Amino acid sequence: MRKIVxxxxxxxxxxxxxxxxxxxxxxxxxxxxxxxxxxxxENGTTFAANAEIKARAVYAEVRMPVIADDxxxxxxxxxxxxxxxxxxxxxxxxxCSKLLKVMADVPQEQRTARFVTDIAFIDExxxxxxxxxxxxxxxxxxxxxxxxxxxxxxxxxxDRSFAELSAEEKNQVSHRANALxxxxxxxxxxxGE
Length: 193
Prior knowledge:
24% strand; 193 residues; 7-stranded mixed beta sheet; globular; 5 helices; 31% helix
């Protein structure tokens, strides 16, 4: 089985990536599984730049295929914020409540938003490929659901939040899933599965 290191120890991301790439016969390892403990500064100004920074740092340690992603929520009424600063928008556990507070007076028709993921894939030869995915929705008025993480409880996809979708439903439509589908097609072509 071919192995790829995912530049994270986040169990939620790891689960999502494994669910999508395992059918290709790819074993997805976390950084911890691969014995890597790097934590590079994500000082890029785009999702793609941050994904590349993480992928190159892990690749330098393992010299095998690496996937890294950077994701965030872009809210139109906030001129695309929090964007690349999504994880630093508020202290852990307060992302949704701060966003709801900031958006309190924004009318329904102006609550459009999109999740964006850029995935950097570095192959065994050190060649870089970027795949981008997005998912459009709205910012709700309250936190709903328990299945998601991050901004999922306030990101409305149709009449349900991302946190109200099952993993299977989310994996069909999410920004990360859309980027991974593009990567899946590249890997299927490349590795002949």
